[in-house]
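Appendix B, example 12.
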Amino acid sequence: MTKYSKDFFPPADTLVQYLNDFATKLNLKIQYNSTMHDVMKREDKLFQMWDQHDNVYTCKYVIMATGIAKPHAPYFEGHELVDGYEDLTTDLEAFEGQSVFIIGRGNAAHETAQHIMGSTNVVHMMGRSATRLAWATHYVGDLRAINNGILDTYQLKSLDGLFEASSDALNVTRSPIDGRLYMQNEFDTVPGGQVVSEVDNDATREGYDRIIRCIGFEFDFEIFHPSMNVKRA
């Protein structure tokens, strides 16, 4: 990789270029632009599957190396009002002056916060547990320093905020009054129209222009035929 980039954190496109060159140099037999489905095991112990053009493939061994590409999108009231990380624009103009609420406290969530925080009015983040820092845990899968800018603004008492809660308890509604998104609980009246007590200092009461779901990905088992009894490890 050092022949492709001198950056400590190279752009993702650099890895794509490297892998393409790797496949070309070794003359690997790769069929691109193929979407497989209904992977099944026949009575003769061979595997069979189909692509999007209904071409049939048969083989003795199947190695699943697709990674985890299906967004983890739990159900909660108002989930349809939330933007998914997988569909999020990288255009900062789309976030200019907005108040943004991010569901998640992992790498994807902090990467998103890091990217947009210079354009937003405020960023709030919610996760089930405290953020695990890679430099503290010595695990490269935890939050890396390059994406922890929002921790600075939070600790320095800026408007950005972090708090812990489960997404299962969320109830997101869009106010018919101001069009903003609100976290509603059993004591709220119409979001954006309720009378707020003078001692109420809940940072979420002002509502948000955008709520983003960034809580990771999971394996997509839909690639297998129903006859395949595939279990999680």
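The longest helix spans residues 12-25. DSSP finds four helices and twelve strands in the chain.
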